[in-house]
Amino acid sequence: MKRHYINKKYVDPDGGAPNYRNVPGHRVKMKVDLRRGTVVKPTVSWHVEREASEDDRFVEDPQFDVRTTPTTSWGRDVDRHWLTLTIGKVLGARYTVSVKLDGQPAHSFAPFETWYRVFLNVNAGDAYLYGLFSKALSGVKKIFERACIAIEENEVTVAGTKTKEKDHSEQGDRGARITVTLSAADWYPFSHNVVVKIANRAVTEPKYATLTGDTLRLSIAEICRWKASPEHLTSITAKGGAGTLATVGRDDVAGVSARVDNRTLTVDLAAQALAPVQAEIAAGRAVEITLATGVEQFGREGGQGGAGYANIKLWRQAELTLFGKTQTSAQIAALVAHEVGHALGLVDRNASEAYRGTRNVYAFTEGGADERRAPATVSKAHPRKHGPEFGGSGHHCTFNTHRVDDTSTSSKKRVEVMDGMKSCVMFHSTLDRVRDEGFCDTCIAHLRRVAAAR
Fold it and tell me: Rounded distance, CA 299 to CA 183, Å?
């Protein structure tokens, strides 16, 4: 089926400069020439049919204009009969147009399907990041094709130098431009207080702390990822039943603690500065030790998308090796598709839509009555949307998920993917267990409407 882009300018069937490309894509012009001079002019009837689909209730009835102009074609005087359709702004709508003269078989034009072009202006911090994006781009295109959206690169800037720019002058005013910024996830300052509670010579909390003899061991991988730093802790404060037992400040803390590796930190409770703490623990009494960290944490991979932009953070190979992680092209494609989906209005916080008419067959006859109907006005928003009160940042899709208890969220619940299932690419986490098709059917249908109506 032929793709018809509603945000592209098409060749005017009249032809000739300056009207070479001046028909916006949401209008479709078709013509038929009849030689002048016949005794009885035939009636010209146009027939338009839209293939029935689940989106019928959202598609507006097309507006139309039927007219006849005398002209000359190939040296002959003809009457040129025109049909101009203004079609609804819903992607994936399939139309068939035919014209019939009195007593003659109908002539059908090539059927077409409504599509939308999205142009990405890519701004990469360096060639490595752009290389990761380039390998994933085919996957991004495949994900969006199900929504009848064609993704194309427009401008590419790498390390401040523009390396690619395409001419899209034929595109109409509705051509979508989305700026995709690629940067590396990086280290950033991070502070965190860890409170270790000890009773009866054993750690009661947190679970990632253990006590062996006089060595308090903390699995810092549970808190953050650490980079080499002159200081491991900024201070240690210990309290018991009688009050403060010991305080070790910034100048002395390095003498009582050590980082074993990138995942483990130890505190020597046998050190002189912590002798009162050791005595309380040996007596089986309760002790509370606050470890104030002043380290650097590795920023998470991820992104943020909004109207006209998508910011993407990717891993460098050094961090992938250090943390034993993977970053496949499929994962990057899902991440980019997620943020570009947001940029196109998918799972928007305030998105709502209106139901339209449901008829999909129309007949237009020169001189006949106007058969258009006014659209209905029934509001409908994305049916599978959850907000940040159930996890994630912003609004996301709940396909194949359920709610579990989680005291860290404002709702005390978190949306998680069900066991053995795969999520939609618009779930709040796109790194694991995303369905190969990307978008769920609900998001596909929603995207076909909101993207075209931007």
Answer: 11
Residue 336 and residue 312 in contact, taking contact as beta carbons nearer than 8 Å: yes
Instruction: For 115-186+301-347+382-450, give the CATH class.
Output: alpha beta
CA separation for the pair 65, 57 (Å, rounded) = 23
* pLDDT for the residue 283: 93
What are the extents of the domains in the chain?
2-110+356-365, 115-186+301-347+382-450, 188-297
Work out the percent of the chain whose per-residue pLDDT is above 90.
27
- Is the pLDDT at 274 greater than 90, yes or no? yes
User: What average pLDDT score do residues 230-247 get?
Assistant: 84
Instruction: Tokens 């998470």: give the residue.
Output: 300
Phi and psi angles of residue 273, each rounded to the nearest 5 degrees, phi first:
-65, -20
Q: How high does pLDDT run on average in the chain?
A: 79
For residues 92 and 148, the answer to whether their CB atoms sit within 8 Å is yes
Helices 127-145, 329-343: crossing angle, 10 deg rounding: 70
pLDDT of residue 315: 87
pLDDT at 122: 95
pLDDT for position 362: 54
CB-side exposure of 106: number of CA atoms within 13 Å? 12
CATH 1.10.1200 at 2-110+356-365, yes or no: no
Amino acid at 181: T
Cα–Cα nearest to 5, from 84, 89, 120, 83: 89
> Degrees (nearest 5) of the Cα angle 56, 339, 55?
5
Distance CA 54, CA 45 (A): 28
Residue carrying structure tokens 């998918």: 346
